[in-house]
TrEMBL record:
Keywords: Oxidoreductase. This is Gfo/Idh/MocA family protein. Residues 139-276 form the GFO/IDH/MocA-like oxidoreductase domain. It comes from Aquimarina celericrescens. Gene3D superfamilies: Dihydrodipicolinate Reductase, domain 2, NAD(P)-binding Rossmann-like Domain. Residues 4-126 form the Gfo/Idh/MocA-like oxidoreductase N-terminal domain. InterPro entries: Gfo/Idh/MocA-like_OxRdtase_N, Gfo/Idh/MocA_oxidrdct_glycsds, GFO_IDH_MocA-like_dom, NAD(P)-bd_dom_sf. It comes from the Bacteria.
Amino acid sequence: MKEVNVGIIGGGLMGREAASAFSRWCVFNDMPVKPVLKAVCDLDENVLEWYKKVATVTQFTTVASELLKNKEIEVVYVAVPHHLHEELYKQVLASGKDLIAEKPFGIDLKSCRNIIDKVKESKRFVRCSSEFPFLPGPQKVIEYVRSNKVGKLLEVKSGFHHSSDVNTKKPINWKRMVAYCGEVGVMGDLGMHAVHLPFRLGYYPISVYADLQNIIKKRPGADGTMKACDTWDNAILHTRIEKEDHTVPMTIEMKRIAPTETNTWYIEILGTKGGVKYSTKEPKTLWTFAIEGVTQRWQKEDLGFKSVLDTITGGIFEPGFPDCFQQMLGAYFAERAGSLGERFHCATPEEALLSHQLFDAALRSEKENKVVNL
Ligand SMILES: NC(=O)c1ccc[n+]([C@@H]2O[C@H](COP(=O)([O-])OP(=O)(O)OC[C@H]3O[C@@H](n4cnc5c(N)ncnc54)[C@H](O)[C@@H]3O)[C@@H](O)[C@H]2O)c1
């Protein structure tokens, strides 16, 4: 297996997930390449400390340009707050390295467009992180829809819900401040996850009416004093898509304050002949709708481990978050090596742009309290 040297810029929550996924690459069968984590950059020395347990890392730095000067590194995964996406993604591309970018791929629409200009100019291989479609359930949803079992499309619902912000005493962090997370707030944080699969199925909104809520307006800071928590907490986008000879409502929900939901990603697609539902709340269950004679029924099926890329893990076992994140990274490296073929690929910069166009229209819809056409 050919080795590809990798660097990480931003070693926090997601940087560690990526490091862990690279370290467990032996799970894959028939993988053409193996990423080897060689360099890590984080502003915070304490964050770098954790990476000392990853034996392959030889460069630890607090300055991104130092990592980018490292000629050994071919691919860089960048997982930093959103206000730094444009600057750091462009630096990575200018250094001649390929990029695994985190969502939302720029703090806003303008920033996303600027990054895409640089991607085109540099001709580097770039994909955007969005891992949930790599679970077996969403893969089955795609298979179901593409096999024309749905009939005439009736409606689509897709969403991603968190609940920890129900706790009003939860300290503030960069994800809850417009300056670092972006004016799009929760849409920048959770939105790419909610739109990735609908977009891939060809469900592109032609209009949006947005219900955006900022429910908790202050949260305690590190010093205990209350700070402004000025981002949108919850967003419900009532969109419309065009299909065949009719229009179809598609609801995209992104919520940080969804009581009881720890990390619930879901999709529901209903048609006149069939339907399919999947939620990480029941991670191994696929619901499908069928009509037999006069009987209409939902039926559920237990799914196993099979995802996009073949692994050594037993087919009846259950996957989780680290597995779909690793599958996504596997797809990135397989596609980069030219061996992914027709299998599901990571979100593209163009898909990230579509998501920003939708979120930007949602902001205008909220401000003007009207339906915005896309
Ligand atoms: N794909 C997913 O499921 C998922 C989940 C959570 C977050 N994210 C995305 O990942 C990115 C990072 O989020 P996170 O949760 O890991 O955040 P985090 O706060 O846990 O980590 C960010 C890290 O970046 C470091 N950093 C800040 N400025 C830097 C700079 N100039 N150079 C180097 N390091 C710098 C910080 O010190 C911190 O350690 C965001 O884009 C976020 O939207 C994706």
